[in-house]
Amino acid sequence: MSGQATTEIERGLEGVVIGKSAITFIDGQEGILRYRGIDIKELAEKSTYEEVVYLLWNGKLPTQRELADFKRNLAKHRALPREVRSLLKTMPKAANPMDVARTAASFIATYPAKKAETFEGANRRKARELTATLPTIVAGFQRIRKGKTLVNPNPRMDHAASFLYGFFGKKPDEVARRAFDTISILYADHEMNASTFAAVVTTSTLADLGGAVTSAIAALAGPLHGGSNRRVMEMLEKIGSLDRVHQYVEDELSAGHRIMGFGHRIYHTFDPRAVILKDVADDLTKRSGQRKWLDIALRLEEDIWEKRHLRPNIEFYAAVVLNELGIPKDLMPAVFACNRVAGWIAHIYEQYADNRIIRPLTEYVGPSATPYVPIEQRS
Length: 379
Ligand SMILES: CC(C)(COP(=O)(O)OP(=O)(O)OC[C@H]1O[C@@H](n2cnc3c(N)ncnc32)[C@H](O)[C@@H]1OP(=O)(O)O)[C@@H](O)C(=O)NCCC(=O)NCCS
Hints:
This protein is mostly helical. The protein is 56% helix and 3% strand. Coenzyme A is lined by residues 12, 224, 228, 258-265, 308, 310, 313-315.
């Protein structure tokens, strides 16, 4: 007997509440998302990524002084240690950037605790290191694989400017910086999604924060989760023109395929993040004068709604925004990771503060007691 059998199984843990959390509130019927009680629309409009990270980790918005200290602290960790630079250079150029981010995060977590540092102190340090360096890692890997030299972070730049600077090697304009800041805020947390759950499960064994973040990046990579922004852009390119949207939808749905960037476990109405990103995409395309991908996306949204009553999720317009910003498709999931790290860490802190090992059950459906057959007697 492996344990007491469960009577009801919720596939994919749908609707199962696994704990209490004071971090993020979602009302999937009304399309409401709040971080620490503050509506995502207000945060996207008025705050910055650093303010949001502070809010998620500390449960309150920072004062001017607290924010200045926090930003300084993050900026201090942005430059890559020599060993991480070497590690990035040894990675295959064809590596999936998510795998690179996961490996580098795990590598950073190997730095031993400093003298007299407590487990909690080491975790707080790792939290800042990972949050600050993951964007530099992702941007830096792009430069390395393109044969370009790494850019040293400018400590006066914020998270968004620093990422784009590390990626393109020149200071971004304000429209691009603000767009990246907004997408970073929207990606920062989303309650108990699959990658956050992976982080929380790892934390519940009292493993260290670096290990928990590494598990989360692995879980985020799949196409049903953070890997879908890339698949959305691949799909838009495959469709290629407005007149082909209708046929594409017909073909994919009749073949029983999923349309990437549509549907959500929690939202049964608009995903408020998709609504915000649609406007950001519109702003960016006004600037570039290139509406092709946005127009295809808008037509696709109409078509899928008509045929399946499914709404776009964050990844749908995130792909359009990231593409407008010049981020290549295969790097899009890694951009998600280097922003979601903020939310993972908030949930990791919450789990450490009130921990019990997470150890659910499965209902055993395999063979009953079976004798061991020696190898020479097996047919
Ligand atoms: C997000 C997602 C994984 C949620 O999955 P879920 O909560 O398990 O939902 P289900 O897989 O049970 O889907 C419910 C129904 O909607 C359909 N559906 C859900 N998403 C769909 C999509 N993107 N395209 C076509 N049909 C979809 C399913 O086929 C299913 O239909 P059925 O009841 O007739 O079988 C799912 O919507 C999906 O695969 N979306 C595409 C990937 C994506 O965009 N992921 C990013 C999430 S932020």
